[in-house]
Amino acid sequence: MELTQVTQPGRQVIERYGPSGFRVSGQIHLGPVLVFADRTISWADAAFTEAALVPVIEHGGVELLLLGLGRRMAPAPSALRTALKAHGIAVETMDTGAACRTYNVLLAEDRRVAAALLLPV
């Protein structure tokens, strides 16, 4: 799915997502990703656990983490919410498409947001 083109110099904008991966600021990423305002990294251990989301915690400055769960909706595990809240990070779950669109809007508003995105299959 192609998203509306919004360019923000020096910022990671999600341009496209599909069953094989994501295009973020012109770069193709195959598989799940973690997207921050300043970089996008492969999310090899794509699980909704504190251990799998250590890069978000270590990144610093993230106030809101959007969890893109593919094509389904489910609440974030309470243990994960509690662990991230201890680091000042709120969590919102949604399908991957909604997470991509929401991330771009919040980034444009200069919010301190990150996205953990599973493939939309």
Description:
Helix content is 22%, strand content 28%. The chain has 121 residues and is an alpha/beta fold. The chain is globular and about 35 Å long. Strand 4 and strand 5 (40-42) form a beta hairpin. The protein has helices at 54-59, 78-85, 96-108; strands at 14-18, 21-24, 27-30, 33-35, 40-42, 64-68, 90-94, 113-117. It has a single domain (14-117), classed as MTH938-like (Hypothetical Protein Mth938, Chain: A). It is built from three helices and eight strands; from the N terminus they run βββββαβαβαβ. The strands form two sheets. It has a five-stranded mixed sheet with strand order 5-4-8-6-7, sandwiched between helices. A three-stranded antiparallel sheet has the order 1-2-3, covered by helices on one side.
| Helical percentage | 10-25%
Q: Which ranges are low-confidence, i.e. pLDDT below 50, for 5 or more consecutive residues?
A: none
What coarse outline follows from CA principal-axis ratios? globular
The span between the termini is 12 Å
State the order of secondary-structure elements, H for helix, E for strand.
EEEEEHEHEHE
Number of helices: 3
Major sheet: arrangement of strands: 5-4-8-6-7
**What's the architecture, going by CATH?**
3-Layer(aba) Sandwich
CATH-defined fold name: Hypothetical Protein Mth938, Chain: A
Estimate nothing, just give the exact number of structural domains.
1
Instruction: Estimate the strand proportion.
Output: 25-35%
Q: Superfamily at the CATH H level? A: MTH938-like
